[in-house]
Specification:
Distance between the termini: 51 Å
EC number: 6.1.1.23
Organism: Paenibacillus profundus
Order of helices and strands: EEEEEHHHEEEEHEEHHEHHEEEHHEH
CATH architecture of the largest domain: 2-Layer Sandwich
Strand order of the largest sheet: 6-10-11-16-15-14-13-12
Shape: elongated
CATH class of the largest domain: Alpha Beta
Largest sheet: 8 strands, mixed
Subcellular location: Cytoplasm
Radius of gyration: 26 Å
Structural class: alpha+beta
GO molecular function, one term: aspartate-tRNA(Asn) ligase activity
Helix content: 25-40%
Subunit structure: Homodimer.
Length: about 425
């Protein structure tokens, strides 16, 4: 009669220290191999960390290449010279999948000493490096904190189409696609849909999803596909409420990742960000005056160029933390047609951008909620209201005053961690020249 043996339960590397004098099984990737006489030390890495394994006897003949996938069954013992004071004395080692050798680059270095393009060409491999791995652990925590805060404050998460009939800004910067017998586009933003859902009675909605911009930029600041953290809220009095909301939201997000990702920040040698004071707010016109007076910088009409954004954040920054500033009152001609005109100066809008560390990470503002005013605004841009029929329908049947904002997740991550290029904050970036992997 055969006896069914219970399968061995896998233990994560981060919990091995709790299993002293027990026999356990770990699984992961070969992170390092060192020979010392009749003993071989093998470091095994999984999603939680690294643990040292000691191989002797028959296991010394085992063929091991870096990044091979292995399972190690052995006894956990104390070892003063081992990382974390603990190691596994192997009883059985199984190579689950042998990795090719040599690797395109060395993953054991403290930092990946390769060009960004090389790193992205071998993206899956580069993501195994502990520093790159930490970036996306932190990014995941940021998105989770965004969701948790808004859910706690009465927001409903929504999921909107990414294949659309027209653009939110009149058809500019759109990627056309073949959609059966029609031409459709990849969505620039969930803007229309999140407004519709506010008008559908949900009042407060948010979405975390991809957006697409057909902009022919090739800079360290731009991606053509990125993740947008969108929020829209009904029954507001002004854009000031939106800036108040985002400020408290960001405080929560930064506090959450500092608490949840302490090890990742240490590994990246970055101090977690704490927002202890209110983010300053100034009009674009005020920013222009500061830049000209302080730096002799002349800015484009009604806006700031990248150098202006960098200098303004430098002006407001303190204690080596990235400077934050809300810029308000953008001119109507550079804002979308749905932007609400400012009550005291109709040539300007009740809109804002948030700059962080010299980079725009947010655009937001109050939206037009009255049908006739919205139709007039569409026509003022030489657009046909008939092309926006499904969007305009909700405004025919009672739309509350509303507004919202969108945060670029990759830009937020890159500024929080001081990364040199926003592509480093995208697992699989899509830019002007990259469609793979």
């Amino acid at each position: 009669m055969s006896i069914n043996k219970e399968p061995e339960v896998r233990v994560l590397c981060s919990t091995v220290s709790r299993c002293e004098r027990q026999q356990i099984t770990i699984q992961g990737w070969v992170h390092g191999v060192r020979h010392l006489g009749q003993v071989m030390f093998m470091d095994v890495r999984d999603r939680s960390g690294i643990v040292q394994c000691v191989l002797e006897g028959e296991w010394l003949d085992l063929s091991l290449t870096m990044e091979s996938v292995v399972a190690v069954h052995g006894e956990v013992v104390q070892a003063a010279k081992a990382p974390n004071g603990i190691e596994i004395h192997a009883i059985r080692v199984e190579v689950l999948n042998q990795a090719e050798s040599p690797l395109p680059f060395d993953l054991n270095k403290k930092q990946l000493k390769v060009r960004l393009d090389t790193m992205l060409d071998h993206r899956v491999l580069s993501l195994r490096h502990r520093r790159a791995h930490s970036i996306f652990t932190i990014q995941s925590a940021l998105a989770g904190a965004f969701r948790a805060y808004l859910t706690r404050h009465g927001f409903t998460q929504i999921f909107t189409p990414k294949i659309v009939a027209s653009g939110t800004e009149g058809g500019s910067n759109l990627f056309p696609i073949h959609y059966f017998e029609h031409t459709a586009y990849l969505a620039q933003s969930p803007q229309f849909y999140k407004q519709m859902m506010v008008g559908a009675g949900y009042e407060r909605v948010f979405e975390i999803g991809p957006v697409y911009r057909a902009e022919e930029h090739n800079t360290s600041r731009h991606l053509n596909e990125y993740i947008s953290l969108d929020a829209e809220i009904g029954f507001i009095r002004s854009e000031e409420e939106l800036m108040d909301l985002e400020q408290e939201l960001l405080k929560h997000m930064f506090d959450t990742v500092a608490r949840q990702c302490e090890d990742e920040f240490k590994l990246l040698e970055v101090e977690p960000l704490v927002l202890t004071t209110d983010i300053p707010r100034m009009t674009v016109a005020e920013a222009h005056r500061i830049l000209e007076r302080k730096y002799g910088k002349l800015s484009p009409k009604g806006d700031l160029d990248p150098e202006g954004e960098r200098l303004l954040c430098q002006y407001v920054g303190e204690n080596k933390q990235p400077g934050f500033v809300f810029l308000t009152r953008y001119p109507r001609e550079i804002r979308p047609f749905y932007a609400m005109p400012a009550a005291d100066e109709p040539a300007l809008t009740a809109s804002f951008d948030l700059l962080m560390g010299g980079l725009e990470i947010t655009t937001g503002g109050q939206r037009i909620h009255e049908l006739e005013q919205l139709i007039q605004s569409i026509r003022s841009r030489s657009l046909n209201p008939d092309h926006f029929g499904s969007y305009l329908e909700v405004f025919r049947y009672g739309m509350p005053p509303h507004g919202g904002f969108a945060i670029g997740l990759e830009r937020l991550t890159s500024r929080l961690l001081g990364l040199g290029n926003v592509r480093e904050a995208s697992a699989f970036p899509r830019d002007r020249n990259r469609l793979t992997p």
